[in-house]
Amino acid sequence: MKIGFIGLGHMGNPMVRNLLKQGHSLKVYDVVPDLVKKVVGDKCEAAASVAEAGKGVEVVITMLPSSPHVRNVYGDRNGLLASIAPGTFLIDSSTIDPLTSREVAMDARAKDCHMVDAPVSGGVAGAEAATLTFMVGGEAKDFETAKPILQAMGKNIVHCGGIGNGQVAKICNNMMLAIEMIATSEGMTLAAKLGMDPKVFASIVNTSSGRCWSSDTYNPYPGVLENVPSSRNYTGGFGADLMLKDLTLVTEAAKSAKHPVMLGAIAQQIYQKHSIDGNGGKDFSSVILQYLKL
Amino acid sequence: MKIGFIGLGHMGNPMVRNLLKQGHSLKVYDVVPDLVKKVVGDKCEAAASVAEAGKGVEVVITMLPSSPHVRNVYGDRNGLLASIAPGTFLIDSSTIDPLTSREVAMDARAKDCHMVDAPVSGGVAGAEAATLTFMVGGEAKDFETAKPILQAMGKNIVHCGGIGNGQVAKICNNMMLAIEMIATSEGMTLAAKLGMDPKVFASIVNTSSGRCWSSDTYNPYPGVLENVPSSRNYTGGFGADLMLKDLTLVTEAAKSAKHPVMLGAIAQQIYQKHSIDGNGGKDFSSVILQYLKL
Amino acid sequence: MKIGFIGLGHMGNPMVRNLLKQGHSLKVYDVVPDLVKKVVGDKCEAAASVAEAGKGVEVVITMLPSSPHVRNVYGDRNGLLASIAPGTFLIDSSTIDPLTSREVAMDARAKDCHMVDAPVSGGVAGAEAATLTFMVGGEAKDFETAKPILQAMGKNIVHCGGIGNGQVAKICNNMMLAIEMIATSEGMTLAAKLGMDPKVFASIVNTSSGRCWSSDTYNPYPGVLENVPSSRNYTGGFGADLMLKDLTLVTEAAKSAKHPVMLGAIAQQIYQKHSIDGNGGKDFSSVILQYLKL
Amino acid sequence: MKIGFIGLGHMGNPMVRNLLKQGHSLKVYDVVPDLVKKVVGDKCEAAASVAEAGKGVEVVITMLPSSPHVRNVYGDRNGLLASIAPGTFLIDSSTIDPLTSREVAMDARAKDCHMVDAPVSGGVAGAEAATLTFMVGGEAKDFETAKPILQAMGKNIVHCGGIGNGQVAKICNNMMLAIEMIATSEGMTLAAKLGMDPKVFASIVNTSSGRCWSSDTYNPYPGVLENVPSSRNYTGGFGADLMLKDLTLVTEAAKSAKHPVMLGAIAQQIYQKHSIDGNGGKDFSSVILQYLKL
Fold it and tell me: Domain of life of the organism in this record (chains A, B, C, D) (predicted)?
């Protein structure tokens, strides 16, 4: 297929490479020319602008850092929707707030374009290995259209319901993850301080009612699991500042919906503090350092 | 074996019955005479006092509601330790604070008695079915002594390290559980309010990084899982006021250890509010009602 | 002076009347025609549009409900800045986020217009009595220009520093106020539950280190002070949903600034819960009902 | 009068000196003999034990660090109540939990002794200058008995109602104080980060609805007020660890009363974190350092 791709950062770059591997032809754009240069080549043409990237293609995929970027790329006077051909299929893989996803999709429908939101989990490593999970929001028919394209870049392609629900699934899951990571940090460090061996405590929790992904697969206490960020000084993994971004999104979405999320709001504050303490670049499991002196 | 058993409430009663089934002889005591009458019979003799229950037996098991009760039963002028024969083996299955466990065990050693703390999980149903989990704190040798006795009443007998660590394991696990239950409540209700089907959201979380026992085994959102309290109006299960008791224990223990547990403290407050709102007798997953109007 | 006034709601209406009393001539606009009809009359002309309200006047005052409204009224293609005469002086009395204030003021400068932000406190009663407090952000010279105009509507006209600082002062003050109101609610209800007479406790706090405006001037415990909302079933005063709006603004501003505000975030959650419990229309001191059964 | 005095630490020592200045005769005791030596002299006799300090005196005053100390000094087999003469008047100036105050007073009544609880505020400086505030719980008649004695050591002698209410008043006031100090810290640092001059912000808050003792009399932001701990690197004043002790007492009392205190619980956690970060010895206004890099 002929695909436009906008946003060539840490995630977009390997996603483009995987699309090329599957034989697609691409027109690519980024505001930073150097990022474009890194991927142009055989079957991968540089577009001079956002509008240009959307012309003469069947599908456009966007991978952008925030809601305002998505609004601008799609909605500006020089944006995608102003010039796109009716019937072009749109996939936004940015992680943004669900309301923006829904508004942009509505604007797209006014131009006779179908759209899905398809945020990812799996990070840069998943993007490179084409093992990303895509959480897709959109009509059933549109999900079927998107699925084979996304399979070039990911392994799990999950339908979450109507447009915007990909975002809802991602940010609500990540809110739970953040809270559970802090819960695990508090439980592990308190058990250790009260005299238990952290490995023994983890093994008990992991066969009991306190178990969670943060305790059994990604334990933040150094030395409990191998091959996780806590065993290599919190390098690699999913950055604390990225978690903070998702917590900010989800608490804003909760405010818009007038829904209380007490622990979510406090997790956002704890990650905020963790970030200004200088830990934003470390893996998000490093939040245990708020409780543990190494 | 000849076993003394003190504390014949909802848990103690079926535990005594299971010990009898395995052929042990018992001397039993409770401050409430009616509770004693319910179990006395063949090979199960009523003791007239705490001290009496500890005489002429090889082992004493206690199952009491709180730390002050444990202090009194063991430490009083008319308590167990004042009259017990050296060498009597002591098992305390109460859920209390680890410091009390350690102090009482130290007093027991001064009388040449070995002691383990062995709090349980599994509730009344587990006590009746002899499928309790015992989290045992004590020396390795003492754990080996306790194990066959506890197997008459439970299925998983876990060694958690030195004396008091049974309590540490239980209350730290339950703190994580309480936080994760609230995290699941916030995530499920927010996803639903933002437009997702709760079952679809649960299925995504449960194969993703937000999964935890509260989401995949005991989901608090009505209709997501069958045969859990949320599917029967939060009856049965583990009472919210029992969770509140454990949260109070763990936050006190954290204060004694001068260790911060921000989310643990807030979970304690949320369950406190839930209780004064009149929900203390419901299953603890009913905390979702703080976020959901049914 | 000839003044344009946009936004004629509960606050704007009495502000317009007070400007007229001081002899100013007005051109007024609101999207709701009925609100316009309520004020037009001698020296008070209806404008047919936002742009119209800004023509042929020396000053424009805006009193709008939120940041997006302010962006639209000033920034739209048909907005104020597109048609305004250079040199027109602009006063925005809306309570919005400081970043928006600063951006709009920058756009205004590009049209050779000076602007101040001047959010108010004092509520509808203050607007009617011309006793509002105006917290003014802008250059010293612009503050001097604004001051006599604002004095027609208020009593305290305070210079808070550069543009946007009026908003900063208001939302940071109100965050402190919300936290202190909850602190007072917790202190008063706990003291009462522990056996103290609420009036005696209040009198002790109010001469001690726990005193605050919420305890000595606006006590939320019924019967402690006369002539405050708590003495009349929380009617009148400053609505809980308005406080929630300010808490939402301030926590967003904190996120933009990457600054932690733990208690501010929790206060936002508590007011959010209070609102969905059905109390949004009551005075904000009714938050004590989260702790007190009346 | 002939007065027994038990507890000769930082507070007890100057309190004893002030009683002597007013012409009273004392019998003094402390477990640390050196502390006794510091005060013995003319009209101030050393007692060999707690029991001894209570013999041949009309009044006993105790000034002890915690509830268990109070229980031991009064309740032990060798304690005050075991040997005291009926009719001896008892004043406990320790800050402890109200339940303990009430229990000890009940035990005292069984020995025909009247008792008041009379915790203080004002710190070491107030003790030295005889300007302490005494918050007194007890019957009206007992308050009248205590008042002239306490006036030798303090300036404000406040009757708070029945026995235990002195404690309630103190710990509930201090909970409000702690929350308000953190509220002021969040408000001041956020306003500064958003671009306001801290002095200007403080002056606005202090004439507005956000004002509190922490903002207008003891502002934690360096340079806003003179002669407060924040102007001298948080030395002197009321130690953060003493505030932590009071927050621990009040949150325990709330748990016993089954009363939620969400912000109180979080303030306790924030001071806990502040303490393990190494700031326990600084003035409690140093909690602003959790938000401010100096």
Answer: Bacteria
Rounded to whole angstroms, how far apart are CA atoms C212 and D173? 11
| Domain region containing C268 | 167-290
What pLDDT score does C236 carry?
87
Q: A80-106 pLDDT, tens per residue?
A: 999 999 999 999 999 999 999 999 999
CATH code of D115's domain: 3.40.50.720
Catalytic residues of B: 170
CB of D168 less than 8 A from some CB of C: yes
D215 and D121 both lie in a single domain = no
| pLDDT score, position B233 | 96
For the segment C13-41, the average pLDDT, to the nearest whole number, is 97
A140 interface with B at CB cutoff 8 Å = no
Under a CB-based contact definition with an 8 Å cutoff, are residues D81 and D25 in contact? no
For residues A252 and D114, give the distance between their C-alpha atoms in angstroms, rounded to a whole number.
Answer: 58
Confidence at residue A293, expressed as pLDDT on a 0 to 100 scale: 79
Are the beta carbons of D263 and C160 separated by less than 8 Å?
no
Dihedral angle over CA of A115, A119, A122, A123, nearest 10: 110
The domain tally of chain B equals 2
Is residue A170 part of the annotated active site? The answer reads yes
Query: Residues D130, D240: one domain?
Result: no
My answer on whether B215 and B108 are in the same domain is no
Spell out, as residue ranges, where chain B has pLDDT lower than 70: none
Residues of chain B contacting A192 with CB distance shorter than 8 Å: none
C240: closest CA among C275, C267, C213, C269? C275
- Say which residues have a Cβ less than 8 Å from residue C235's Cβ, sequence separation at least 6: C229, C282, C283
Q: How far is D151 from chain B (nearest CA, A)?
A: 36
**Domain ends where: D137, D163, D189?**
D163
Q: Above 90 in pLDDT, residue C181?
A: yes
C16 touches chain D (CB under 8 A): no
Catalytic residue ranges of D = 170
Contact across the interface for C179 and D263, Cβ inside 8 Å: yes
Q: Are B26 and B148 contained in the same domain?
A: yes
| Tens digits of residue pLDDT in A137-164 | 999 999 999 999 999 999 999 999 999 9
A169 touches B at CB < 8 Å:
yes
CB contact under 8 A, C272 and A258: yes
Q: How far apart are CA D41 and CA B125, in angstroms?
A: 69
Residues of B in contact with D272 (CB under 8 A): 254-255, 258-260
pLDDT at C197: 96
Question: Over 90: is that where the pLDDT of C66 sits?
Answer: yes
D193-251 confidence digits (pLDDT tens): 999 999 999 999 999 999 999 999 999 999 999 999 999 999 988 999 999 999 999 99
Q: Based on the fold, state whether residues A110 and A204 are members of the same structural domain.
A: no
Q: Quick check: B190 and A215 CB within 8 A?
A: no
- The CATH number of whichever domain residue A241 belongs to comes to 1.10.1040.10
Q: Which residue in C275, C276, C270, C264 sits closest to C186, CA to CA?
A: C270
A-chain CB neighbours of B205 within 8 Å are: 172-173, 176
A138 and A255 inside one domain: no
Picking from C179, C164, C183, C180, the residue whose alpha carbon sits closest to that of residue C251 is C179
Of C142, C162, C182, at which residue does a domain stop? C162
Please tell me whether residues C50 and C151 are part of one structural domain.
yes
Distance from CA of B274 to the nearest CA of D (A): 9
The predicted structure's pLDDT at residue A91: 98
CB contact residues (below 8 A), chain D span 197-256, against chain B: 248, 251-252, 254-255
Same domain? B225 vs B87: no
